[in-house]
Structures are given as C-alpha cells and as structure tokens.
Amino acid sequence: MKTLTRFDEAEVQTDQTATHDGEEVENSGLTPVYGWRWAALFTSLCLGLLLALIETSISATALVTIGAYFDDFPDSTWVILAYLLGYSGFSIVFPRLSDIIGQRAAVLLAWVLFAAFSLGAGLSRTLPQLIVCRAFQGIGGTGLYAMTMVISPQITPVKRWPLMGTSVGVVVGTAAICGPILGGVITEKSTWRWIYLFNAPFAAIAVLPLVLLWPRNNKTTNRQQWRHIDVFGALLSIAGSCLIVFVLNQVGAAFYKWNDAVIISCLTISGLCWVSFVVWIAVLSRKSLWNIDPIFPGKIAATRPSGPAIVVAFLAGFPYFVAVINLPERSQLVNGLTPIGAGLRLMPLLAFTAVGTAVGGSLCTKKNRTPEVLVVGAMLMTIGCGLLSTLSGGRDIEAKQYGFEVILGSGFGFFFASLTQMINIENKACNLAAVQGAINQARVLGGCTGLAVATIVLNNNITKVLVGLVSSAQLQSIRHSLGSIETLSPSQRELVARAFANSFNTEMRTCCYVSIATVLFLKAYNRHTATNTNPVISFHSPGTEALSRSLQTPQTKRLSVQYWLWVPKVRFQRAAKVLEIGVYSTIRTTTTGP
User: Fold this and answer.
1) pLDDT digit string (tens) for 354-372?
2) 10 Å Cβ neighbour count for 516?
3) Rounded Cα gap, residues 487 and 492, in angstroms
4) Which of 112, 347, 371, 592 makes a 20 to 30 Å CA pair with 480?
C-alpha cells in the first residue's frame, strides 16, 4: 500500500495528453520551467499581482488630499470607484481574452495598460482626467491579477507548489499592508501623484522576464479564434458589473436615494444585463451559434467546487473590504490618528492576513487540508468580526483590538489561500482563466456591497446625531466626504466620532452575520470515495494530470480517492459526476508484484 499525501512525493513529467473522464484531452497549458528561469518569471508575475492589489486601497488614505487639490470632495470618490469599475467589469473579459491572443500577449497587454494609465493618472491636470485614467488602470490591474493566478500553476513544477502557494499568500498580504500605509506616507511626505507614478519603473523591470524567458506553450494560439470571441457576452458582463458597482457607491455615499430614477434605471438595466447574460451563456453552451465560444463556460457555474467558490468569494469579499477600508478611517476619526498612524494600527490584521495565507497555502499543498483550512478560515472570520463589534468608542485604542485584528487577519489568510489552491487544483488549464476571473469579480462585487452597506449605516447615524446642529449644506457635505468634518466645531467632531464608532460596531456585526452564512454554506459537504470502477482523479493542471495518468497502470489493483463536496446537497446532489466535484485528499494504490 502506497499513500501519496504530498505533491512532491512523486516525480511527475508533463505529457501532451492526459486522461480525463476516460478520454484523452489535450493539455493546453504552459511547460513548467525550473531554476532561475522559474524564479525570474514567477517574481515578475508576483510583482504585477502586488501592484494591482496595492492600487485597490492606496488611494483611500490619499482621497482627502486629492479632493482638496482639485477642490472637489464629492466627486473625488470616483477615483476609487473608477478603478473598481474597470477592475470588476473586466474580471471575466480579460482572462478570456488570453485564450484568444495567448497568455504572454495578455499579461504584456495588462502591463502596458496598467503602466501607461498609471502615468496618466499621476500626470492628470483635472479630476475627470484622473478618473478616466484610473478606470483604464483598473482594467490593466485585473489582467495582472487574473493572469498571475492562471499562469503561476502552469509554469511551476509540481514539487514547488507549496512554495508557490506560500509566495502568493505573502504577496497578497504584503499588498494589503502596503496599500494604506504607502498612500499615507507618500501623501504626507511628497505629492499624491507619486502613488500612481511609481508603478511605471516597476513595469519596465517586470516585462523583461516575460519577453525573454517565456516557456514553450503546448498549444499554438489559433489566430482564427478572433471570430469566435463572445463580444455580446462580454458587453453584458461589463455593463451588469459596472452599473451595480455604480449604484452601490452612489447610494452608499448619499449622492442618490434608492427610489431616485437614476438608481432605479441602473438597477433595472443591470438586472436585465445579468439575466440576458445567463440566458446567452446557457444558449451558447448547448448550441454552437455562429461558432462563438461563450465568454464564461456555463458548465463551470454548475460544477463543484468552481460554482460554489464564486458564491463564497462574494461572501468573503464583504467583510474583507469593510475591515480593511473602515478600520483606518475609525482610527483617524475616533482615535485622532494621522493617515500613517492609522495604517500602522492596521498592521496586525494585514500582517496576519499574510501569515495566514502563507500557512494556509502550505497546509493546502503539503498535506492537502484544503476543505478544513477553508472552513477554519471562515470560522476565524466570524469570530474576528464579532469581537471587533464590541470595541468601545473611547479616544484611546484598546489593546484587545490588536488581538481581534490578528484573529480576523488569520481567517482572511486561511480562507483566500485555500480557495485559490482549490480552484488551481480542480480546474483544467483551459478553464482556469474564466474561473479565476469570475472569482475575482465576485470578490470585488462582494466588497463593494459591503462598503455600500457600511456607508449607508454610517450616514444614517451621522444624520441622526447632527440633524438640527449643523446646516443642511454641511450635513450633505459630511455625508459625501468625511474630510468635511474639519469644518465642524470640536464638540460637533466629537459627536461624529461617536457616531462613527457606533456605526463601525454595527458594520462588523453585519460582517459577522455574513461570515456565519459563509460557514454554513461551507459545512454542507459530503465525502465520496472513488474506486477503479468510478475513475479517476480530479487533477487538471499539467503536472497533476500526468500523475493521474501514471497511477492508472496495469499493476494498479485498487485506486481510492477522497473527495469533498462543500455545496448544499439538495441542490447539487444529482448535478455533477464524482470526477468533477472534489479536491484531492489522499491517493492509495495497491500494486501486485515488486
């Protein structure tokens, strides 16, 4: 009896074909690279991931300064919104584009967009110019994020997967740490323009390995596929995502009310876009209309674990964005800290997000405790959010807050590390881009929803506290931008601080409820055992497909694989085959002879 519980316990060679569902399928992934070439390529990809994630939060601590520079506090929120619109709107489109133009061309295009419009944002003379550049920068950013997640498992030898998972976790955590702190430091010590300009020199360095060291592709890009691209599906996805993000931001910032005609129109159009998108993808998945390849394969949404992973990514994005954005704001408004001080007080959460991601990634790849790590991460998120909702509204920061941040950060790290590893293991290379794009989009949409809910709660509390004490114009200005509280008297600022402290506790309780829903969703799993009568192993990366094939030898008498189903049983029990629903836990083979 031989038991394989680690990826590096077997020497695996990448084949051109591998067995899947009893048939031979073509391996469309990249050839793994080794030694310094792998280190250079992987470092280049991680640098793109780092900068793309930093840009999602670096503007938060500089927003007040940017609004003052252009003398436009209300519209300054579009600096963040524009990036999120580009980032979320193209999360599915950009990875799918890589299937058409090739992965190297796609990642280079992402770098060009990101670097060029970073320069444009830093050199903008008007706020509208800055907003437009940030939107296109977001498109490049989502390309860097998605392509890193897609390419890294393909170029990495199987025995280095633990190192890859740990490294990606460290990068994600480092980005979360650096974003708010860099924004505060650069804004205070220099000019806000450098929070965008510094991306350009890093881009010039990062593209060199991609140009010089790119590995061989096992499948030559078919340029004729351009006529098969799903333009209509892409437009529906972009419109649906952008409109819902716009609505959440504008209502949350009190620019519009839910019953305003603009909001109702946007919600209606967004809903129609998403319904049309689902119908369109379903039609394309069943019929080959005009030889168009759907931008998002419909079978992925109904297949475990990819479909449910999109749902839990949305749920996890809700508390993550609320905590990372609102904790520094609480430190500034309630505790009276500077942007740099607020960023430093967030270090326990962000540092342990990095530690949790590294540890969780190691557990997932070395011993494959992916389902357990995922559930534990969601539980820690629930506990951390619940504890943070008990903070008092005093001027001094309580020491226990740092401990609560450690718990919450560890939960985020465990959760995102295991979710990423699960998707990388479970999906074939040809589907990985679409799945990673959908998960990224769901996470951002969940975060935007959380921030909108948090802003609505805050504005309602501030209105209750300040109504009758300040003019309607002042109250409206404060609801649009918290930077406007500088115009208030000390006693009025104290009232705003108390309102923010109470609102923060309410927000974290809401995050706790969302995290509880995540735990309940994840706990709805079953464990299945597959034998040689129900083959084989749900490995889809190039190296692990070869491992799957190598175990199906004439000497193999029995093959046992453990699968986890972490979706509601009633809905999906009849939907998927055992081959497509699990994550590898343990392989045991009984052989005859020597």
Assistant:
1) 788 778 877 776 666 777 8
2) 17
3) 10
4) 347
> Does residue 225 register a pLDDT over 50?
yes
Mean pLDDT to the nearest integer, 75-95: 78
The b-or-e profile of 393-432 (16+ CB within 10 A means b, else e) is beeebeeebeebbbbbbbbbbbbbbbbbbbbbbbbbbbbb
The answer to whether 293 touches 300, Cβ cutoff 8 Å, is no
Number of CB atoms found within 10 A of residue 21's CB: 11
Please give the structure tokens belonging to residue 333. Answer: 């408004």
493-530 pLDDT, tens digit per residue, is 788 788 888 888 998 999 999 999 888 887 655 444 43
Is residue 411 within 8 A of residue 374, CB to CB? The reply is: no
Helices (H) and strands (E) in the chain — how many of each? 23, 6
* Local confidence band at 223 (pLDDT 50, 70, 90 cut-offs): very low
Residue 101, both tokens: 């133009």
Q: What is the second-level CATH architecture of the domain 29-216?
A: Up-down Bundle (1.20)
Compute CA distances 315 → 149, 412, 568, whole Å.
Answer: 20, 12, 16
Q: What is the CA 334 to chain-centroid distance, rounded?
A: 29
Instruction: Compute the distance between CA of residue 377 and CA of residue 379 in angstroms, rounded to an integer.
Output: 5
Please give the structure tokens belonging to residue 294.
């759907």
Query: What is the residue-averaged pLDDT of the chain?
Result: 73
The class of domain 296-529 in CATH terms is mainly alpha
Q: Which of 290, 300, 292, 250 is nearest to 270 (CA)?
A: 250
Residue 15 confidence (pLDDT) above 50:
no
The better pLDDT of the pair 516, 56 is held by 516
Predicted model pTM:
0.71
> Which amino acid belongs to residue 488?
L
Helix/strand/coil (H, E, C) string of 39-56? HHHHHHHHHHHHHHHHCC
Angle between helices 429-466 and 472-480 (to 10 degrees): 160
Q: DSSP assignment of 95-151, as one string?
A: HHHHHHH-HHHHHHHHHHHHHHHHHHHHT-SSHHHHHHHHHHHHHHHHHHHHHHHHH
| Per-residue pLDDT, 380 | 94
Cis peptide leading into 305, omega within 30 of 0?
A: yes
Pull the structure tokens for residue 445.
């949409």
One-letter identity of residue 419: L
Q: Which pair of structure tokens corresponds to residue 176?
A: 């979360």
Instruction: Give the Cα separation of 162 and 172 in Å (integer).
Output: 16
